[in-house]
Input
Amino acid sequence: MERTFESWEKEVIRCIRCGACQNVCPVFKELQAESTVARGRVKLIRGVITKDLDITEGFINKMSLCLMCKACVVNCPSGVKVDKLVEAARKEIAEQKGLSALKKLIFRLVLKNRWVFNSGMKAGSLLQGLVFRKGPQGQGMLPRMSLGIDKRRLLAPLAPKSFRSLYPDVIKVPDAKLRVAFFTGCMINYIYTDTGKAVINVLKRNGVEVVIPALQNCCGTPVRINGDYEAAKQMAKANIDVLLKEKVDGIVVACGTCGLALKEEYAELLEDDPIYAEKAKQIGAMVKDFTELVVSLAGFEDKLGNLPIKVTYHDPCHLVRGLKVKAQPRQIIQCIPGVVFTEMKNSDTCCGSGGSFSLAHYELSTKINDHKVADIKQTGAEVLVTGCSACRMHIADGLNRQNVQVKVMHTAQLLEMAYEATDHSR
Ligand code: SF4
Ligand code: SF4
Output
């Protein structure tokens, strides 16, 4: 039986109201309002569970003002799963109040149906020039009109062709030492195809055969965290079926959010499903972030060329606090000859993206992002490396707003550059 909203009371009462979450919540840091810190949210949720409070517009707004960054969760002495509570509240809101027509359209018609999603992205790629103009120095694009997106916001354009349409289903490697399935996620498939290309090139060089299942779809996280569990479950099951068909040694991801969905959240979402509960666990046990996989490959650091650049690294929330991947990207960056790595202050503080958070609360997300940009600037880095496409886009926007010339890329791209530097020096 599916978990009820009321059953979360057990989690809510674990909050001892110590206030430790105030020191780490990026939203509270800006708004200084008790209702926007974990302790306040937990109290509000308890009120709705006990029926002392109704689901009002104010409650809905407070629940939407959470980045789901997990900073409070890992710093909470009682280990209160605040992000899970907020998610449960959003589910309850969706069930009681219904989803908006736009969310229903996006979640149930577009994201869930690969063909519709693909066609929409193809059309978007062709027509984006009508509603967006080129960004400064030809980088990214800015909205020509409001379109529900802030006109100052620098976005990365949709790629002319999706990543998955550019590659065969299997990238063969002679005498492969490993065979993995690459779960690309939406942003790599439709926007940052350069990250996908780098993942393939790095793995190929290291003797890993890569399968790119053509029928994979969105991981479902945007749908789930907005409370549409029915659609999220269907998407999880479809991806599980697609991935389990492949004869592979593991599943590689290059996005912390997709990785966390596949590794843990599918199993939570489907824990009561008689058929898929076990399958979800099976998938979870196979998932590795790109950097985890690379550092496990003997000799990956051989044949890296010289890259005389200053680099710093931003830890994506779901990668560092979800998948607990922190050392591996640093190990990769620091073994590249010539790279001068400087750790930034607060490298694991949320950049303010939070998926749809930055769409719904752009002004606030830019204030959170300003701290990240200041920390990047202080390092003097020329390149900011990260492991999540959403962080990449949001940080690039912040750097552009403040006219800071720092290139943003995925760890896989930096590694690809280092291998290519060897080729060029021959
Ligand atoms: S840190 Fe944890 S226990 Fe303390 S107030 Fe925040 S949520 Fe409650
Ligand atoms: S998950 Fe992040 S944004 Fe949400 S309450 Fe916790 S620290 Fe604040």
